[in-house]
Design goal:
The chain is built from 3 helices and no strands. The protein is mainly alpha-helical.
């Protein structure tokens, strides 16, 4: 029974870590879209597939929102 609790604890910990990582990516993406919307006449802002990939790559590199916005 103890092994079951240990395995469940590890799974919950791993799941919450993955969830937090995906949540941080969504927040990063939302901030970039806000900056694009502020400087664009088109509403809503629609990102192309290449822009989405660039945002993900910049997030993984650890670039700030301003640096990512400049690259887009």
């Amino acid at each position: 029974m103890l092994i079951f609790y240990i395995i469940c604890g590890v799974l919950v910990f791993a799941g919450s870590g993955l969830f937090m990582h995906l949540n941080r990516l969504a927040i990063y993406r939302r901030r970039i879209i806000r900056q694009l919307a502020a400087n664009s006449k088109q509403t809503p802002v629609i990102l192309s597939e290449s822009q989405e990939q660039k945002i993900k790559q910049n997030f993984l590199k650890g670039l700030s929102v301003k640096e990512c916005y400049k690259e887009l």
